[in-house]
């Protein structure tokens, strides 16, 4: 039996988004949602028959809201909306992001506030279930009035236009629908606007980025613990009372993680045994990682609300017989959250790179320079640290907030926009860079541990060490390093590292 996710506009989880977007789960509309969608559509049809002036139903869009459209031109209006708004440029969004967009748009429509026909919504779900993936370009959204441009590329395929992938092959949207056995849609009143006026592009990118950031935050604790062992770090700094007197939630979680990961280690030290205190990059791991954990938790709350929200305009309140123009399409909540996510993950990478420096710099430790026995003949981890430094420097540029910018559009009708989709894309790039930095630290920590001779690793770090040694052997002589970095980073960003360690010691707190 195929795995599936039932949507009703209220109960979608971040894990559901990941399962549909990445793992191909099928999507089904709940019976309650079907009834709500049909009731809202009935009200739209009633207003159309009465020729009432309602934004986006019998009027133009944006600054053209004052232009009344005749009943005869209503269908043409919806098609014109899609083809004129499909102006996105740049690289194609990954298939998983597009699948996430389709799921999130379907879930928002299933709430019954958008006025779309049930048959049109079912077409979108059928495309998702049969593997028709529209070609959607990444740039062109201002993040207010929704993600108009990129969402229009999704809808182009629904009407038999644009381009799509089917069974991994790129083709016209019409051909993709034909091969999948799906009839193209002829949009009617309100439907074009219902499909494109929402925050689903920034939210799809953001939800997947958030999921990866949670994994990365857990992995950073594991890898940092290995570095603590490699540098004979002092565990007293993680003592619970230190953190209880400054009860920041993420900080306390990280301190608990560190002690559990390092429990049983023969490599760690106590205060005064080797040195009185460690450098900040070791001593302050709970404070630094913990602050990022708290930021990620805030972002999680925002994303969980957004994936179950009606974010288009106007909204149909069938029970009150009202159509109201509002601003739920404005991406400001997601924009701020995505900027915050990018900053939080940048800091995880920043401190990881500083730990790498402490591992490779013989002036800061008692290990061979650059973690190689024959320095000079071999460069060891010298240039791997360069790569980490380059990545964190790039992250500093990417972490500049997008949400503080706004450019008016639509003849100043839309005079403040969020840039939330740019913020989400930047956060995703930062997460990619951070996973590579952590991959380099993972390799360097394992290499340094190897120089310690007889030792017993902690209950959690032992599982992490064994995992990396299954994929990458100790560096005796210089070899092509990018291969090792890619392998280590894949272990990190795939979730394999967290899974292996959690099998050994239980859940890592985030």
TrEMBL record:
**Location(s), subcellular:** Cytoplasm
Annotated HAMAP family: His_ammonia_lyase (MF_00229)
What is the recorded name of this protein? Histidine ammonia-lyase
Its family remark reads: Belongs to the PAL/histidase family.
The source organism is: Caloramator mitchellensis
Q: In which pathway does it act?
A: Amino-acid degradation; L-histidine degradation into L-glutamate; N-formimidoyl-L-glutamate from L-histidine: step 1/3
InterPro entries membership: Aromatic_Lyase (IPR001106), Fumarase/histidase_N (IPR024083), HutH (IPR005921), L-Aspartase-like (IPR008948), Phe/His_NH3-lyase_AS (IPR022313)
Chief location bin: cytoplasm
Keywords from the named record:
Cytoplasm, Histidine metabolism, Lyase
Which top EC class applies here? lyase
